[in-house]
């Protein structure tokens, strides 16, 4: 006796609606994964995430590291013969993961993101020294890349003093549109 597997298609339809992409066009050529500069640190490659969505593996996808590791560089989009926009997909998956309160597969990246947004809200831009200090305190990885930071500071790649954009109120309006009021 052969049994058939029932696939819940609601997950992929939800991601398609949120991202504006149609994943039925993906024939898993792996071009997106081959062109991804961070695929080596993902738990699942971009094409595997698409396949997992097609199979209705909601929990596994939303708890994956891959959706948080994607840097949105668009390399995958330029490689895809069907122009499936993987960064839009990853954004939609991150939104869903946050809304559903799932265990974040890469919590340090979420911490990084929150600290980055706090800096932009405070000054309209990032003050790198404060940003990295706050991030390092949040993750308790205080000295893991101290050498690189000192090298950047000595080479003038980091500002010693913070600067604020001239029209901070406009930056805050953009944030409100994207993320809602505080």
Automatic annotation (TrEMBL):
Residues 25-84 form the 4Fe-4S ferredoxin-type domain. GO terms for molecular function: 4 iron, 4 sulfur cluster binding; metal ion binding; oxidoreductase activity. The keyword Oxidoreductase applies. Coiled coil: none annotated. InterPro entries: 4Fe4S_Fe-S-bd, 4Fe4S_Fe_S_CS, HdrC_iron-sulfur_subunit, Helical_ferredxn. It comes from the Bacteria. Keywords: 4Fe-4S, Iron, Iron-sulfur, Metal-binding, Oxidoreductase. The keyword Transmembrane does not apply. One of its GO terms (cellular component) is plasma membrane. PANTHER family: IRON-SULFUR-BINDING OXIDOREDUCTASE FADF-RELATED, IRON-SULFUR-BINDING OXIDOREDUCTASE FADF-RELATED-RELATED. This is 4Fe-4S dicluster domain-containing protein.
């Amino acid at each position: 006796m052969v049994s058939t597997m029932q696939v819940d298609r609601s997950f992929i339809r939800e991601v398609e609606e949120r991202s504006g992409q149609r994943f039925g066009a993906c024939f898993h050529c792996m071009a997106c994964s081959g062109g991804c500069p961070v695929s080596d640190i993902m738990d699942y490659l971009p094409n595997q995430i698409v396949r997992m969505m097609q199979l209705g593996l909601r929990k596994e996808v939303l708890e994956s590291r891959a959706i948080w590791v994607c840097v949105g560089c668009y390399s995958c989009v330029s490689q895809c013969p069907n122009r499936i926009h993987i960064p839009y997909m990853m954004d939609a998956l991150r939104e869903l993961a946050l809304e559903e309160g799932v265990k974040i597969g890469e919590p340090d990246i979420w911490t990084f993101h929150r600290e980055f947004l706090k800096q932009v809200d405070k000054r309209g831009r990032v003050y790198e020294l404060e940003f990295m200090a706050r991030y390092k305190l949040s993750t308790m990885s205080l000295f893991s890349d101290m050498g690189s930071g000192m090298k950047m500071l000595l080479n003038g790649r980091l500002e010693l003093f913070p600067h604020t954009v001239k029209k901070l109120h406009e930056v805050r309006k953009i944030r409100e549109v994207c993320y809602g009021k505080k």
